[in-house]
Design brief:
about 180 residues
C-alpha cells in the first residue's frame, strides 16, 4: 500500500510538469521569424568583369561595371532598411508573456544592430561612388597602386591593396 501513495503523487507531478511544459512551449512559440540576410547579397549576383587584352586599368567600361555593382548593393541595402521598418511596425505587439516580449525585443535588437552595420556600409558605398566620380576608385589610398579588379569584385568598398591591408591587419593585431 505505501507504494501506491508514492506512485500517485509522482504521476500527478509528472502530469503537472508535462502540462506546464506544453503550455510554456505553446505560449513562447515565436511568430514566424524573418531570416536575417547577409549584407553581401546585393552585389553577389553579377557577372565578373572580363578584361580585354591591353585594356587600361579602370577604363570607362570597368568604372561602369563597378558603379553598377555599388548601386545594386546600395539599392539592396536600402530595401532591407524599408523591410525592417515595415517588419518592426507590423510585428510590434505587447505580449502579456514576459518570455514572448523578451524574444521579440531580442529579435528587434539584433535586427537593429544589423541595420546599423549596414548603415556604416552604405556610407562606405557612397564614398566608393564618390571615388568613382573623382576617377580615384580602384587605387590604394596608402601606396597608390592598383587594388585589382578581382579584389574590388570581392569587396567593392576596398580602399587598400592586398599588401597594405595585410600590413594594416598585422599592426592592428599587434596593438591588441
Amino acid at each position: 500500500m505505501p507504494t501506491k501513495k508514492t506512485e500517485a503523487p509522482k504521476k500527478a507531478a509528472t502530469k503537472k510538469t508535462a502540462k506546464k511544459a506544453a503550455t510554456t512551449k505553446a505560449s513562447t512559440k515565436p511568430a514566424a521569424k524573418q531570416q536575417p540576410r547577409s549584407s553581401l547579397e546585393g552585389f553577389a549576383h553579377f557577372t565578373p568583369y572580363q578584361e580585354k587584352k591591353g585594356e587600361e586599368y579602370m577604363s570607362p567600361e570597368m568604372e561602369a561595371h563597378f558603379r553598377e555593382i555599388l548601386l545594386a548593393w546600395k539599392k539592396e541595402l536600402m530595401e532591407e532598411v524599408d523591410r525592417t521598418v515595415h517588419h518592426m511596425q507590423d510585428e510590434a505587439a505587447n505580449f502579456p508573456d514576459p518570455n514572448d516580449r523578451a524574444s521579440q525585443e531580442s529579435e528587434f535588437s539584433m535586427e537593429l544592430r544589423t541595420r546599423d552595420r549596414e548603415r556604416k556600409l552604405l556610407k562606405k558605398i557612397n564614398e566608393a561612388l564618390d571615388l568613382l566620380d573623382e576617377g580615384e576608385y580602384g587605387y590604394c589610398e596608402s601606396c597608390g597602386i592598383e587594388v585589382g579588379v578581382r579584389r574590388l569584385e570581392a569587396r567593392p568598398t576596398a580602399t587598400l591593396c592586398i599588401d597594405c591591408k595585410t600590413l594594416d591587419e598585422i599592426r592592428e593585431k599587434q596593438r591588441g
